[in-house]
């Protein structure tokens, strides 16, 4: 009987697609994380958290978002904070990456099925050298987070003492690199008290950017170095990232320069620093050095756009991804210029990639619009722009908030939890599902081509 049950469970896993296993795996990690956070030992009062608050926090941590319904620094105990940072690390690097490393360290063989699953989890198209790449992800993450923690310790240890300062440094380095945005400073303050601290701004921004570039791009930066010799993927990611950072910095500086609620009373050099930080953080990081609720409407709108775009494929970031934006812009430009082929860096972009990019944008937009409608129903007394901002933040797994999250109803918490979950896994599962359907169509149709039809557009 036991043997039959094991065979049945094994058959269930082998018959699942990588996308389905990823969804199941992430959901399982979130559930167990939520159970741990409901334990009395997880809170400072010892009373235990409600399951819905624990579930929301676990979802936010695993989906590396940073939206919180209770203050992380003052509500959770040391055990609770350890659970949260552990969930952030799993969510940032991917549970399949960590599982693979345990198998490798134990000397276990990685099967083709597992390699396909790993490839899907980190959003790569090839299984060639995948185990070696996972090793690079694992060890480079440890090194980068350790360097970040050492640099943050320069500020935090003198301020909080050796033990707490070290813990703060490690927690915020991991949270920043994984683009999570959880903080321990209390009162939902994030990094606002360090708006004028160069070390904190520099280290956190660097960790966010590196984490959001993707491991394939950082590998090119380390081993290839010359831009001309990098892969087309890395070139697109670096180009789009640079443009978004510069454009965001300029507009935030202009929109918030005289705003007394954010940067209006800061020295000019601090305004430059705060503007750059605010340009970096919407790319799915979630930290802030100025009060988000005090931003002007143009800045809020710009932040929403940056949150929707997010980071890059194969990174710790969310959103529709920089490469998706790049392909959409190139497609529009080619149509306006009357060009048949879409070309960048002396390479043409294939049709399937364009279709996947358009699908990700359309499906992502549909999810955001639907969730905005849901929250308008569950939170009828909240200003419209606050609801829209919160949904964009959840879908992009960013974590920035105008202050709405702690006051959400149970229905609102569930809706945002689903949005974070879909935002973290959506682009990966969508791209994989489309790739499978295209392959299935080719196998069924073979070399035959159906008659063409014409539709009027615009």
TrEMBL record:
GO CC, one annotated term: plasma membrane
Keyword list, A-Z: Cell membrane, Ion transport, Membrane, Potassium, Potassium transport, Transmembrane, Transmembrane helix, Transport
Primary location: membrane
Location(s), subcellular: Cell membrane
Keyword Transport: yes
Record bears the keyword Cell cycle: no
Positions of transmembrane segments: 21-39, 82-106, 133-156, 168-186, 198-224, 236-255, 292-311, 318-337, 357-376, 414-435
UniProt GO MF annotations: potassium:chloride symporter activity
Top-level taxon of origin: Bacteria
Membrane topology of this protein: Multi-pass membrane protein
Name of protein: ATP synthase subunit J
Lineage: Bacteria, Bacillati, Bacillota, Clostridia, Eubacteriales
